[in-house]
User: What shape does this take?
Amino acid sequence: MKTKSFRIDRYISKELKINRRDIKLMLAQGRIVINGETIREVSSIVEEFDCVECDGEILQNKKPLYIMLNKPIGVVSATKDDLHKTVISLLEGYSVSELDSLHIVGRLDLNTSG
Assistant: This one.
């Protein structure tokens, strides 16, 4: 199975939303590390599952998370609700950051399942 690869400047630009000129400066200053090795070349390649650090912060190459759920009756199609159980509260095994980034696409009434 072939993994995706990216030039380090393109990868960091996408992840941190900063321009490539600033990334070149960061590389020259030794502020970027791939798999424990300080990188200084803009042409360095990042593989899909490499550990990339910028100023000591690990950058994650996040893939979209899609969850299909069969909503039971009595559960609200919402991420937060003070009165009722929400579809988010039904999800187990996900981190808080994963759940916080979710958005409801289709909504069903409280007394509807599906």
User: Anything to note?
Assistant: The mean pLDDT is 88.
